[in-house]
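Re-run requested by the PI after the first attempt was lost when the workstation crashed. Everything re-entered from the original request form. Ligand of interest: adenosine-5'-triphosphate.
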Amino acid sequence: MKYQSFLIKYAEIGTKGKNRYLFEDALIRQIKIALKRVEGTFLASKESGRIYVQTTGDYDYDEVIEALKKVFGIAWICPVVQSEQKGFESVRRAVLDYVGEVYPNRPFTFKVDSRRADKTYPIHSEDINRELGAAILAAYPQTSVDVHNPDVRIHVEIRKVVNIFSLMIPGPGGMPVGTNGKAMLLLSGGIDSPVAGYMIARRGVKIDAIYFHAPPYTSDRAKQKVIDLARIVARYSGPIPLHVVNFTDIQLYIYEKCPHEELTIIMRRYMMRIAETIATANDARALITGESIGQVASQTVPSLAATNEVCTLPVFRPLIAFDKQEIVNIAERIETFETSILPYEDCCTIFVAKHPVIKPNINCIRKSEGNLRENIDELVKTAIDTEEVIWCEAK
Ligand code: ATP
Ligand code: MG
């Protein structure tokens, strides 16, 4: 079937009252970004309180649906057949062709739901429903009418052109990216943080990302893996600027001066501090991590409290109460999993102690950090000043 247009239905953004247009405009912007990756000519626009993607020329249907399924804010995608001819006989023929092609030889119950947006149209909706219903029954005897709970609702809208649609393909839900500010995702090469970024982007938040690497202890391959992950998340969130911060000297200094069982916590605290500074400089008003209670020693409640203590920005931890398997399920669905499980070195694991603290005492941690007094400010400043920013487009 050749669909000329896609009707985009949105859920939550419909409830935003006066600001609704901002949400609609953001949704259109995100649809345009997503469709740039699909061959063909597409026009996304608002028309009488609705969003349509109009197509001209050839395109690959599956690719369009795949792209639209990644645009947050879309609740349903309805492929629409359009008929320019509005005479009733033409409409009848178009509807019969539509039903024959979309539901070949299948028994189903249906209801015709027509609307006359063009009030000059000579036939009333109820008569259109009745006439078209009768025509479908006659042409396809395996069908029957059920006005209360039909398998298929056939929408026929008489507007400037006639729209015919019945399919509703679920979108990803959420809100259009860009409608809820910006946050900085601490993105490692693991399974969790890409999922965390995806979940917050789904709430309409634009994402910047930050990665701490420790060459030569972590390789270029590990860094490339993080870039690849950012590019997968970018399929949903739009392009992600990835801030790459060299953490080696800070890490070595902590290793030299602090008790080794506290290393991970102290390193995490410096990551959060640096992330916060770079977030603020880039107008991001929150941090995002992939932490989940109890997953590792640095994620017990006392450890999380110790890490959190150094931040004043809100820290979003969307996976906090998820089991690992639940996180893996999402990672597989959004297609980050395969990349996340590739072998790589992580600066958190290279310097990790055999027996890290699981109940860090904040006073002890602060005291240990006191050992860093001499050089740490300078090292942090250098790390921030020498950040590299990599623009990660969807791939
Ligand atoms: P992930 O699977 O996301 O790496 P993890 O279970 O390995 O998480 P940790 O290594 O303790 O957990 O990291 C906790 C969180 O800290 C990560 O989810 C991520 O947000 C952040 N993080 C850890 N290491 C880095 C890094 N090298 N660069 C940026 N962020 C990091
Ligand atoms: Mg990790």
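Saved to the shared folder this time. Residues 186-188, 190-193, 210-212, 271, 289-291, 295-296, 298-299, 347-348 surround adenosine-5'-triphosphate (ligand 1) (CB under 6 Å).
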